[in-house]
Amino acid sequence: MDKLDELRAELLAAVSDAPDADALEKVRVAVMGKKGRITDMMKGLGQMDPDERRTFGAALNALKDDVATALDGRKAAFETAALNARLESERVDVSLTARPDSDGTLHPISQTIDEVIAIFGQMGFELAEGPDIEDDFHNFTALNFPPGHPAREMHDTFFLPEREDGSRHVLRTHTSPVQIRTMQSRKPPIRVICLGRTYRCDSDMTHTPMFHQIEGLVIDTNINMGHLKGCLKEFVEAYFEVSDVPMQFRPSFFPFTEPSAEVDIGCSRKNGELKIGEGDGWLEILGCGMVHPNVLKACGYDPNEVQGFAFGMGLERIAMLKYGIPDLRTFFDSDLRWLRHYGFGCLDVPTLTGGLTR
Ligand code: 2NL
User: What's the predicted TM-score (pTM) here?
Assistant: First the structure.
């Protein structure tokens, strides 16, 4: 029995002296493994006589339990120490400043498109789309441009290379061809807006070779200029967020409307600041008119049965007026500082009543 006590002291010392988990595992194998010291002694029990086996076996089991408990305890201590070391080294410094916010912004044109669609959508207009590359018929002929009209000439229109059949396609010079396509493919009543890129070979302070238009078209029986006026007044008041805006219709000319008019809205200019909806100044914002009978005929309609009105405006222009952007050319410079200044938060929702959240 003394021998077992000596062995216990030796083994417990080996356990507590093991410097790390690997060394401890070696101790365990040497004592409890298949050929370990206690395992060997267990095997020897078979050769003993029953009395001796009972007392020695009980003592040996007690020794084995003691050593196993010590091994488990030391192993747990190593694991706890390792975990603590990891927690210490992987600690997150919550006091570090956050990474810079790199959210992008919506371009003012995108924001204006969203707003215009929301306003006309509430008035019952559908959105129509069409190609940027158009044929001569949809861009000019159907819109009552006589042959030799200046807008057809090289300095205004981007022509594409001649095709095999001799036709020359163009980059659309306005969004009107989309409305021609709508009239060709549908029957009245029609209430659509179309908006998108348009192209003209022109570049200076107030012109860029690519710009955006929004146009509207209403075709039905008994449509008159009163409907046109009411529709535009509703739009202008919603878009500029003013009530009772003064409007004047000045006679004008477009090949595709008769009569044609340019529309001015009341404004004031005090110390260089433009205010829309008040004052005694006038600001031109769009062109409009009753759809020319020749246009209706080109689309297969009988001008004696149906009439309609149409209007068009430049998106950059109405964006500049609403958001105080002074220079048209900056819209297309892709200058990040400009975009951060004039851009809009991605989650801004255009509403008729709400202002902007950013
Ligand atoms: C402007 C003026 C306008 C139209 C566009 C139109 C379209 C069809 C038939 C008749 Cl399919 N008219 N569009 C009418 C009048 C004026 O635009 O100053 N735009 C920037």
Answer: 0.72
